[in-house]
Amino acid sequence: MSPRALFGVFVLAILAGCASPSFVATVSVRHQLPAGVLKASAPVASGAAAVAAAMAKPKAFAFERSASQAQSLAYQQYETELAQHLVEQGLIWQRDPKAADWLVRFDYQIDDGKNKSYQQPIWGTIGYSVSYQRVISGGSVVFIPRYYPETGIVGSQTVNETIYTREVFVDILDRKTLDKGEFAKLYEGRARNRSENDELDTAVPWLIRSLFKPFPGPSGVSREVRMPMTTPTP
Q1: Rounded distance between C-alpha atoms, residue 134 and residue 163, angstroms
Q2: 84 burial level (CB within 10 Å; 0-12, 13-18, 19+)
Q3: Is the peptide bond before 234 cis (omega within 30 degrees of 0)?
Q4: What is the pLDDT along the chain (234 residues), one digit of tens a residue?
Q5: Which among 95, 116, 139, 193 counts the fewest CB atoms within 10 Å?
């Protein structure tokens, strides 16, 4: 492929990225949620188990907060968004943890950033192509040359940037089993986004949404979630 064609592909890739920005998150989930308790759960095959699942009472969940989380306006906002997504799954938001079937633990964080260096190509003129225009002058045919610059990679430069990792953590535990001192975790999910942007507040809602694409999602695997955006990437 010629340098000019390579440059065209490079420009088209940039324009495509600018035309449809996306929020990209890596989602890792492990869960053992009972079948039939969520709208998104696969239906039980048949028989008495299917009837029991259909008649099962919706599970109620409540948030278990630390002292600092309980007095955080930001946490309260994100908690409400997370709760709305869980309600859409067929669960009931119970404000009193003692009356809930499940307890939800939710947290978020951003690291101090890691420096990353890479080589970026420098584009410039690498030569000229020529074409000739046929002109009749004074009864003679004259060919006038026209020169066109050829664009390509003329060098490289080192680019340094800081990449921040922004994360959301969600755990769901069976309250009664937890009260017995037994292993009670039903779900643990982690959503991670890496960006040059160190803004956490705008990223947390997107990270929460990524956990529900779908929910609970495949257990024991990590997957990439891309969500189209109409505003600049947070």
Answers
A1: 57
A2: exposed
A3: no
A4: 444 444 444 444 444 444 568 999 999 999 998 877 887 544 444 555 555 555 568 899 999 999 999 999 999 999 999 999 999 999 999 999 999 999 999 999 999 999 887 788 888 888 888 888 888 877 788 888 888 888 888 888 887 889 999 999 999 999 999 999 999 999 999 999 999 999 999 999 999 999 999 999 999 999 999 999 876 666
A5: 139
Pairing of strands 102-110, 60-63: parallel
Residue 222's domain comprises: 23-116+162-228
* Under 8 Å between Cβ of 189 and 170: yes
Domain of 96: which CATH number? 3.30.160
* Residues 195 and 113 sit within 8 Å (Cβ to Cβ): no
Q: Is 10 within the bounds of a domain?
A: no
**Contact present, 193 and 154 (Cβ < 8 Å):** no
- Domain for residue 15, yes or no? no
How many domains in the chain? 1
| Token duo for residue 36 | 């039939």
Q: Is residue 87 part of a domain?
A: yes
